[in-house]
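Lab meeting prep.
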Amino acid sequence: QVQLVESGGGLVQPGGSLRLSCRASGSIFSILHMGWYRQAPGKQRELVARITPGGNTNYADAVKGRFTISRDNAKNTIYLQMNSLKPEDTAVYYCNAAIIDDYWGQGTQVTVSS
């Protein structure tokens, strides 16, 4: 069983930055495939970024060049650095861990508005 706790969401103006964090419980973090997903009102949950145990990353086209996913295995934590935020980035952001099964955090709200 893996428990995930996100933090770092909030309200930011367009063009601003936020950094999300997700801390995982347990001792198997280093072999987990981790990712960030988001769900806007009335829309399906979508992939934002993923990172493999070896540190390989991939991003949704909508966030390439603006968002960066990273992991710190010593802290059982992944991060999502979000720069040049746009109103369309407004959503609940969820942390995901995958190894055989999928595990999800409770979500953190990101609102981009002036």
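Slide two material, second protein:
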Amino acid sequence: VQLVESGGGLVQAGGSLRLSCDASGTIFSINVMGWYRQAPGKQRELVAHITSGGSTNYADSVKGRFTISRDNAGNTIYLQMTSLKPEDTAVYYCNVLDTHGAYWGQGTQVTVSS
């Protein structure tokens, strides 16, 4: 499984960005796809995930500001980020977890200036 993220960049506080993650290869039908982030000097943390059944879960810090979604084929997920804050600055990683293992993308940098 290969994951390719896109959509990161530099944005002012209060702005918006949309991240995309395209998954290729064999992904089993029962899976969870999600976004994690890692800021300098901090541990990687879950931002949001979405199951193959469509259930979603968000970190408290992004609830009401970020929305995760996936396309009908289930191989692309998006993270719509609004009302961005400087503390959202991090490298954002796409993740897929299925019955055969966990897979990570290379990450995309999101920088929010104050």
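Talking points for slide two:
The mean pLDDT is 94.
The first strand starts at residue 2 and ends at 6.
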